[in-house]
Design goal:
Radius of gyration: 24 Å
Distance between the termini: 62 Å
Order of helices and strands: HH
Number of helices: 2
Number of strands: 0
Largest sheet: none
Structural class: mainly alpha
Length: about 80
Amino acid sequence: MSQAMLGWVLGCTFVYSALFGAGSFIYGRMPQFWMWLVVCVASGFGMARVLRGFWSTSDVPPSAPNLPPSPTSPTSRPSTTTR
């Protein structure tokens, strides 16, 4: 299974288990609540692991740093701020 599909499945599982767990807690069904809580936490850890993999392996090359233009560049303009 691709990492994107795994992340999608884990994300859906995370959200729905949180919703079903909240409903179980509100209606006082504590055994169901604990089960949904375990599923929510497990899918959250899995999703964090998948996302960490996405963030660490980027196909986009790093961009140039955002430096101010040098004073000798033709596009630099004098400051118009007065004090």
